[in-house]
Amino acid sequence: MGLSPWQILAAAEVRYCIVTLFLLWILLCLLFKRLPILDKPLGSAHQVVVLLPFCYLAFQGSRLWLFDDGFAAAFADDRVFGFYAPAQSLVLVFFGFQVWDLTVTLVTPELCKPDAIIHHSVSGVLALIGLSAGTSGFLLYYGAFFFGFSEVSSVPLAAVDIFRMNKRLASAMPSVNEACRVSFAALFLGIRCAYWPFVAFDFWRQTLASGAPFSLLSVWWAANIGLTLLQYYWGMLIVKGIIKMVTGKKDSEGDAGSSGDGPLLEAGSTLQ
């Protein structure tokens, strides 16, 4: 079998991830409460902390997915139950990240929304299944993309949400705010809307032919359908935001004096 629940929780990647993120978040919460320019110090601390796992997952996922010959060779014959230690390590970090993120989301008013709770819960369950099922793991190959490479767009998103929470900070740094929004929109549309369906198609092709237990596949199938639809819903919001920005229409929310990018912000605020 794959890793047991105890082995997963005891794994160094999970322990270090959870402890490090909690300590850093607590320290930043205490610090940010002293900064008058921040309207929401707890949420802002969260958005700064998530940059660490986002950057790691994006870098490691990109390296595995695009450049690691050992990764490709390990899953050449079996992308469903194949094993590669660095891929397992990435999923362990992702699981630890989701445990921390769900906990912080539940105790932070500006983050505690039903869609965010569902998103973190489903992501954590998928990672848990991937680590514990099969003889040495389940769908670790696709974990490198869905839990790793796709997080490239989440790096500028963290900055976008910091500005979204803090109107005075956004007004003080309009150029940085705009650069983060443009980067997020471009990366999201390129990776999660244009490239994602090709990976999803391969995922379905491989899993349908795998003969893996339906109980395992059904959870991932349902999640893939739901998350894929969400990518295009968020993508639609981003495109609407871009159109408003280009045409100069003001959004009814009056976000920090920016030109009609409320839909883009709505996509960002639910993605994490």
From TrEMBL:
Keyword Repeat: no
Main subcellular location of this protein, as a coarse class: membrane
Ranges that cross the membrane: 6-32, 44-61, 81-104, 139-159, 179-198, 218-239
GO CC, any one term: plasma membrane
Annotated region (Disordered), positions in chain: 253-272
Topology relative to the membrane: Multi-pass membrane protein
UniProt keyword annotations, A-Z: Membrane, Transmembrane, Transmembrane helix
Subcellular location: Membrane
Entries under Pfam families matching the protein: TRAM_LAG1_CLN8
Domain (TLC) ranges: 48-240
GO biological process entries: membrane assembly; phospholipid homeostasis; plasma membrane organization; regulation of membrane lipid distribution
Positions in coiled-coil regions: none
Presence of the UniProt keyword DNA-binding in the record: no
PANTHER family for the chain: CT120 PROTEIN, TLC DOMAIN-CONTAINING PROTEIN
Protein name: TLC domain-containing protein
